[in-house]
Specification:
The chain is mainly α and 210 residues long. Helix content is 67%, strand content 0%. It has eight helices and no strands.
Amino acid sequence: MPAIPASHDAPPVLPADAPIHPGWLRAMHWLNALAVVVMVTSGWRIYNASPLFDFVFPKGITLGGWLGGALQWHFAGMWLLFFNGILYLAMNLATGRLCRKFFPLSARGMAADLGAALRGRLSHADPRRYNQVQRAAYLFVMADIAVLVLSGLVLWKSVQFDLLRELMGGYEAARRVHFIAMALLTAFVAVHLAMVALVPRSLIAMIRGK
């Protein structure tokens, strides 16, 4: 059976020689990837110092060596993710890429693209276009990172961000929110890497632009 084109909306009109991903986007993507790896692995070490649940992460996959070192790595990753994320969002808004790449989005379109993907019939012929499942996933991870940052502020400066702490249900609830947001981000990365393995030219495009 022929592959089904992703989504049903018209593709954006771009110059034929335009890169799939502009240089600023590729740079920010890899900086975000670095920040996420640093924050997640150092976060696992911080978690191990005071576990929420009946398990800890193997020391070999954590970063920092000890609690103080992990906190330093975590803060470094946090500031990189924060400033790079703000710039990423600003550039997407300023260039119109946010609306062009991630919208329109509908439950019906997502269901159609997800069904086609599960049947192995979703086309990846045009790497310039995101299908609706991709759009939803990328918008979700942006929101998830925002939750990570906000809950992280509560854990870092609980007294100063007392209103935010109370909105999250208290300090311990904020810890759980932070952990769940981290777990969801890790799951997104795992699925993202699996999709890259299935469509390897997407990695080339993120490195070279085309």
